[in-house]
Structure formats: C-alpha cells, structure tokens
Amino acid sequence: MKKRLIVPILIFIVLLLASCTKEDTPEQRLKEYIGHWNKAQFTDMYDGYLTIKTKETFDTAKFVDRQKKLSKDLAIKNRKVTYTTTKKDTDWDHKKPAKFKVHIQMDTLAGKVQFDKEVTLHYEKKDKAENWFIEWNPSFIFPELEEKDTIRISTSKSARGEILDRNGKPIASNGIGYEIGIVSGKFTDESKKVELAELLTVTEDYITKQLSQSWVQPEHFVPISRVAKNDDERLEKLISIPGVTYKETAMREYPYGESMAHLTGYIGKMTAELLEKHKKDGYTETDLIGRQGLEKSLESRLRGQNGVGIYIQKPDAGAELLPIVETPAVDGETISVTIDAELQKLAYTAMKGEPGASVAVDPNNGETLVLLSSPSFSPTEFMLGISGDRYKALSEDPLQPLFNRFAAAYAPGSTLKPITAAIGLEAGTLDPAEGLAISGSSWQKDSSWGNYAVSRLHPEAPNPINLNNALIYSDNIYFAQQALKMGRKTFTDGLTKYGFGEDIPFYLNLAPSQLSNDGKISSEGQLADTSFGQGQMLTNILHLATMYEPLLTDGVMYKPTLLAEEEKKQVWKEGLLSSENARLLRTNLRNVITNGYAQAANLPNIPLAGKTGTAELKATTGDRGQENGFFIAYNSEAPTFILAMMIESVEDNNGSGYVAELASEVFKNLQ
Q1: 250 neighbors 174 (Cβ within 8 angstroms)
Q2: Contacts 24+ apart (CB under 8 A), 186-189
Q3: What is the structure's pLDDT at 3?
Q4: How many angstroms separate the CA atoms of 412 and 534, rounded?
Q5: pLDDT in tens, 530-552
Q6: Catalytic residue among 184, 414, 636, 656, which?
Q7: Would residue 414 show up in a list of annotated catalytic residues for this protein?
Q8: Which of 323, 376, 541, 667 could cysteine-pair with 258, CB 3.0–4.6 Å?
Q9: pLDDT tens string 152-180
Q10: Cβ neighbours of residue 329 under 8 Å, at least 6 residues apart?
Q11: Residue 252: enclosing H or E segment and its boundaries?
C-alpha cells in the first residue's frame, strides 16, 4: 500500500514545483538584452528580444547590419548601457507595458557620447511562448536618429605647429607654394615636355599620363608638381613654357633653406613602414609626418589633432545637420628654439659651401645660437618628394650634403690646447711664466719612444717658450711636455671633468666626445698626441664650443640648450677654472689673434680672441693625410657668443688660417 502511494506523491510534487516556478520579469529580460547590447551582439538582440511590431518595422538590415556598420565606421568602443533597477517585490501586470530608464554611453572617433532613454517592454506571445519583449527604434543608437536619417562624419584639419627662432622668425612655417600645372589646350609643343620634366624632376611619361586622364579637357588645369614660392628662378623658367601655369597652394615653408636644413629637417609623405609604426596614433596614408631634424623629434607636439564630428542628416532637402558629438581641431604647438636664424645664415654663407660644421653658443647661459652642417640640401625638395635620380646625385656627391656634420665627432687638433693648459694650470703642474727650451721641428722623450716623435709647425718660435708663446705658435712639443709632466691620470681626470666620455646633455642626439677608443690613455705617446687634440681623441663641435665657456665664466660650463622653453643657465660642469687662470687664458687667446698666424681674424674694429686648430687624418698609404681645420673665437670685449667652425680638407688651402678667414666674416657682417 505504501509503495503504491509513492509514485503519485512524486508526480504531485513535480507539478507543484512547476506551478511555483517564476516566469521571467521584464527586468530580467532587460538585463539579458543589455548584456548583449554591451557586447554588440546585435543578432542575438534582434532574434530573441524585440517586439513583433519592432521586427515588422525594422528588418535585420535596419537593425543588425546598420548597427554593425556604425560601430565600425564610428570606431565605437567601451559601450556601456545601464538601467535603473526596480523594487524586488514589484508586481508586473502583463496587460501593461513595463518601462525602465537606461543610460547609454560609448566612445567614438569624435569623442564620448552619452544619453538617457526610456525602454518599454511588452508581454507578448511568440512561437507558443509568452515573455517580455523590447520596443525599439533608431533613437536607441543616437538621440533624434530616425529610420530614414543618415549618419555623417565631418573632419576639420588642424594646422601644424610652427618652429620659430629666438627672435620669433619662422624657420619652419605654414605658408604657400605653387602648384605647377598644364592647360592642355595651350600646351602644344611636345618638345617642351623634356624641359618641363627636368625642371620639375619628373619623367616625360608621368606628364603624358597626367594629360591623358579621362577628365582632362583643353581648358582644364592639370596639376603636375609643386615648387616653393621662393624658387623664383625655376618658377620663371616654368611659366615661360607655353601652356604651363601655376596656382597658390598651402605648403610648409623653410625660409632659411639649406642653412637650416640639417637642424629643421622636413616633413614628408607617409610611407607604408611609417604608417605601420604610427597607425595607432591616428595617422593615415595621406598624412605628412616629420621625417628628419626638429620636424621629426618634435612631431608629437607639432602635429596637432584634427577635429571630427558625427552628425544626423535628415532626408529633408536643405535640412541642417544635427550634431551628435563634435571634437574641435587642435592646432599643433608653436615652438621656439634658441637659434638665431640670421646668425646661422651668416655662418652658412661664410662657409661658402665647404664641407664642415659651425656652432655658436652663448657663454652666459648655454643657449645654442648656431647649429649647422655644410654643404646642405633643400628641405622643400625632400618635402615635395625627391626623385630617385636627384636623391642618388645628392647621396653620391663627394661633399656629402646629406651628412649631418654637427652631430658627428672629429679630432679637434690644436683647439684642445687651451683646455690642456687649463687642466695643467688647475693641477698646479703648469707654470705659465716658465719658459721651456725647445729646439728643432720634432722631439721625443727618449729612445723608448722608438720611431714616434712629436713634431711642430713653427720651429722658429723663440726660446724660451712659455704658455703665451706656446699658444701663439701652437707648439705641439710644449703641450706634449706639459701633459707628460701632469701625468696620464691627472690629464685623463681633467678631460673627464670637461665631459669627455659621457653623453652630451642636449635635446638632439650628438656623438659624444671621447678620449680614445677605449676611454683610456695607454702610453706616453698617446698622452702626447691627445694633449694637442690628436691620437684617438674625437670631439663634437658643440661640445668643443661649450668647453671654451669656462674661460669666460671663471670655470662654469653650462648644459647646451636648444628649445627656448628649457631652463637657462643649467650648470653642466663647474669649478673647472679659477678666476685668475681664466683671466690669464683670455689674455693668451687674444694674443693668439693679434700676434699669431690667424691674421685674417685680426679685425681692426672687432677684438677677437680664439684658437685655430688643424687635425691630421693619417693616410693609410703613407702620403700626407687629410687635414681638418678649426677656428674657435669670440669678441673679447663683448663675448655674446663663442663661434666654432670646422672645415674639412684644408691641407691645400692655408690650413686652419683659411677657417679663421671664413669665421671672421661672420663677425664682420654682424649687424
């Protein structure tokens, strides 16, 4: 009897439990729907949660496909939809709609969008099942969006920031250039294609292709290439060709051209490699980007951000766009540098296209006033897109106009001698009044030096030779003997205090100055060579100019700065030279000009002080090697800047005296 009752009782319990199971509430359904919404699962939303009427009005193309496309086109991410919960014991009436407040937010390519909506759910029977379903329309995508509306995206270009010199003069600016084109109906002389192609560094085939486009009519302007507005000579030749004309066009300008090219660099077209590297930063294949120099190193600040807006376009003719979200364009920064553009132009002109570099620093605060490499190139030519043949010609030019010499390091030659003297004076091993008896054109300490000997250029220098005369006659033997007297450690430690062997604290990357290849002085012969800037010593020219600052600041060497915003008078090294020793060396360097061999720099109205230097690059064949000439100078009465100039291959051109002649032109032409 008991066994017979068990089965009916179990069935009753199952039925009772089934009858007690709660149906989905509208809040539960909305929560599920929002879960799919936040994950952009539009198909699931459409298939399982929309009312019958909604599906009749909006098919999958209008609901699923449209939202997928907008998510992609508008770069929608971080979508977050939330709703206001109800009381747990809410009694839902199937005959009445259930309403909830929802908050919708998302990030788009134009910025954040957020808005509130009211969602309505209806209790409906579908496929023999009853449940709550959502009533939907396009305003849940964006407020005010309706079925027949379209979404528009509008962009506004930002202006690239400009680079100004210390006096506010632009060295890289947004200006105009000329777009050169052909009016095909007037370009009747086919033989002129050759001349035009050469002037614009394009091919004849390219010109033919441009003129053969389907849209071209006889009266149409057909663009071929662009030229800078200050390229007057080429422009005159171009417009002399019948049928060739030009239009103004926006263009990056480099007013100081070649004199500033290695410093400013240039902007250029985006390459596939650069696009891959910078795509995450929002660049596109049509963008221009800094390719060299300051244009490259300051790219993130100069670039700016384009503006973008998302709008609703109503189907009515002439209807205004309704903004959804707008982000205005933000122009790039205007950045000032410490360079004096006119002084740099003077220095570049003075160098007459010779291969070398020039630097000027303000000894009072470390600001860099000149930073140039010669010969140079046209930054505009690279910006506009240099041809393969033209690039090959520049890269194969024996004068190497593409090589940035101010970033490299060279043997400084005799320009190091004042630094050697300063180290000896501070160490107490060099007595400036003590005269040394030196005879002959060469000298060696003893036979242990073997075939090595120190030679000097002026054996006629009168004995005894003290520091002043040693600098005037640039006597290698004197400085070699002084280096031996102070010893390897004292001399090495002294040079280290001047920054040898460490990175130069400068905005741009520069080759550091070195004592030797391994940072050590391993022999007496190497010690002797290094004392007058030879051996394995290499020095960056900006660093070299900076090393002369302690002579004018009584022992302080400032960090060289380039951006005007950098803190001035940042001490790099101090305690390098006493006031007494600095004053002594200043007197000596003035005497070098008045009594020495750089008479081209002995100007009647400008009391220059300074030092020449010639560094020989040993030839592998045993013949005379290349000689690089240096001259470092300043106005001894008004030392507003120290100028350092280096010219390569002066062995057949009066050596460093030639460099002194060129550098003196800078001082003579100052306004």
Answers
A1: yes
A2: 186/242, 186/243, 187/211, 187/241, 187/242, 187/243, 187/244, 188/242, 188/243, 189/241, 189/242, 189/243
A3: 53
A4: 7
A5: 999 999 999 999 999 999 999 99
A6: 414
A7: yes
A8: 376
A9: 999 999 999 999 999 999 999 999 999 99
A10: 156, 157, 158, 159, 304, 305, 306, 307
A11: strand 244-253
